[in-house]
Amino acid sequence: MRPFTPLRPDPRAPLARANPTAKLAAAAILMAILFVGSGPVTPAIVLAGIVASVPFTGLAVGTLVGRTWPLLLAALSVGVLNVVLAPASAGGPDYANGAGLGMRLLGIALSGVVALATTEPTDLADSLQQQAHLPPRLAIGALAAVRSLPILVIEWQLLGMARRARGVSAGWSPLAAARLFFGKLLALLVGAVRRATRLALAMDARGFGTAECRTIARPQSMRMADWGLLVAAAALGAAALWMGAAV
Fold it and tell me: pTM (2 decimals)?
């Protein structure tokens, strides 16, 4: 089994030092632009902006690509299927719409990955309470959910090893591979629900969410650079929509 290690950005990188709520808000702006935009130009510009921000994340490009290659494969598959399965038009296959849909899905996924991969989960929970003014139960729940992501990856690997040890293999059959994949996914989800239930009971037993007033040990604040990040995301989205409508 290949050991899983969480992504650890350079803490001195600009995006790693940014406020977690500001990063989530910037990602939400770009996601909204990708949802409402049409054609291939708007998602291409937004995706180019997200890729251009990678050097400011403090993450190695090779490491980020190695962890996000399923997103690239999924976006490519969606684009190809959209071209192949879409009704044929007079001009032939609509490659532009297929490419636009693939880039749109990839941009939505990458914006969330960049925002979360550069954020310490504890800082995220603190910022959600101080800047987003979320209740402590929701903020601590978000912290627990982010902390559980590496466990899901390890359990996925263990499920695959257990099935190989029992001789369960799809061989060369794509239908058998799909059936085994969804079986592993169901087992992973069942285990995640059971773990979340035990964690919720343990947190309630320790008094999480019962106090009306909680103190914050790590104060978070919105700096000028954080507001600049929001302005840059809004400007990128506006420019992408304008250029998409002009073409």
Answer: 0.80
